[in-house]
Structures are given as structure tokens and as C-alpha cells.
Amino acid sequence: MLHIVACIKQVPDTKIIKMNPKTNTMDRASAPAILNPYDAHAVEEAVRLKKRYGGTVSVLTMGPPPAVKAIKKCIEIGADEGYMISDRAFAGADTLATSYALTKAIEKISQIKPVDLIICGKMTIDGDTGQVGPGIARRLDMPPLTSVNKVKEINLEEGYAIVHRKLEDGYEVIQSTMPCLMSVEKEINDVPYSSMTNMLKAARYQPVIWAVADLEDVERTQLGLKGSPTIVSKVWAPTKPSGGQMLEGDAAQQTEQLLNLLLEKKELFAVKGGSGVEL
Fold first, then answer.
1. 277, pLDDT greater than 50
2. Rounded to 5, what percent of the chain is helix, strand, coil?
3. What value, to the nearest 5°, has the Cα angle with vertex 51 and ends 46 and 55?
4. Which of 2, 93, 124, 204 allows an S-S link to 97, with CB 3.0 to 4.6 Å?
């Protein structure tokens, strides 16, 4: 039976979130916390694969206690089990430290039931890095299949998966050994409304919550801020662009005005390597 672990994250709704003008930081209290949209598609795909091949879907997240809501949302979608690692030692983690912590949790989950497939969203909308999924795959020494927009086949008996990877001008078909990790695109599926049965199950569901002490062979220097070589030194809202300049007159007059404007901005036409035409 197929055991899929979907890694998820609770994020602020970036459509609503505001910036604090004094501190130049995101005001996370200004927006509701939601399940990362890419992760919702990852969970939905895991549920579809479970229905197609049989098995179990577990979801895993790292975060503060309120992140339980994201797990409950995944239960609504159709996941079977939920796990969360929550500890002050995880605070301030960048993608490197996050992938390490999640890897240790996956190793513990695999002791309960061996993991055949890990599915992540392509990226989170609050970070946009797309690094955590491949980071987990590297630590677990399994193939990372990124930008997946279709899972064509899973063959657990022969130990391979065939997927379509999205490219700029099409897609490529890849066959990978299993276990493997997939990070999926939004277009891989549509997330339907949850059934009443799943909503009632989610309302009562309580996930398994682990602290650092519950995980095995953890190097604490690789967690949280201590394990994060990257930092965000400053965040600020981009300045609003000024309005465009209207050109007046007939076609010849407008052409002359436009040429003059371009000549005033001739640094945009800087020539590199000694080729081209200088203004």
C-alpha cells in the first residue's frame, strides 16, 4: 500500500497582508493564516493517488500551535493523518534549517509506516524560494522531481514513478526510482470543495505534535536561527510607480517627443562588450 507524506505550511494570505511603514516588515496580524495554496494542490494530488492506487496520506508541517488549522484543512481535503513539529528551537529557520527539521520528522514517520512518496507544493507564497522540497530530497538521498504538473504512473511493485515536468515551452516525461519527492505546480489538479464527512472529521481531528526532544539524532545547531546561514536583513514595500507621460500633437510631433525622451535615458542603451550602436 502506498504511503504518501505531503509537506505543508501555514502562511499569511499575501493578497491581504500589509507592510508596517515604521519597521518595513510584514504585518502578519493584518492577514488571516491559510494553507499555502501550492500545498493544497499537493495534498489533493496525494489524495487522488491514494484513491487510484490505495494507501495512506499523511501531512506534515512545522510551525507554532495555530498551524494545526492547516493540518485540519488537509484532513478536509482527504488526508488520513497529520503530524506537526512545534518547538521554540525551530523558530527563525531558513529553508536549510526547515528542510533539516522536516527530514528528521519524516524519518520518525517512516518508523511508524515506511514512506514511498513525498509531495510538496512548488513553493510557499510567503517565501517563493522552492528550496525546501529539494532540500528534503537531498537529505534523504532520494530523487527530487520538481515542477511536476502530472503524475502519469506509480508502480510500487517495480519501484518507479513517471511524471510530466513543466518546462517553459512544454513538458518533459521523467521516470524516477521510488521513493522519491515531487514538488507540484498548481495546474496539476483542481482542489474541490470538501465533503461534509471530511469537514466533520477535520473539526474533531487532533494531529500528532512532536517537540525537538521527540525526534531522534537531532543536531540542535542545525535548527532555527543557529542552523540558518541566511538572514533577511531588510524588507520593504516597493515604491508606487509614477504615472506615464502623455505625448501630444500629431504623429510626427509625438515621434520627436518620444525620441527626445529616449535620448534623455540613453543609459538604458549602454553597450556591453563593445558591440552594438551607442547613442
1. no
2. 35, 25, 40
3. 75
4. 93
Q: Whole-prediction pTM value? A: 0.82
- Using CA atoms, how far apart are residues 148 and 166, in angstroms rounded to an integer? 6
Residue 88 phi, psi (nearest 5)? -60, -25
pLDDT digits (tens, 9 = 90+) for 220-270: 999 999 999 987 777 766 777 777 778 889 999 999 988 888 887 665 555
Give pLDDT tens digits for 85-115.
999 999 989 999 999 999 999 999 999 999 9
Cα angle 140, 146, 151; round to 5: 100
CB distance 81 to 56 below 8 Å: yes
Give the whole-angstrom CA distance, residue 63 versus residue 279.
Answer: 55
Distance (Å, whole) CA 78 – CA 29: 29
Distance of CA 66 to the CA centre of its chain: 19
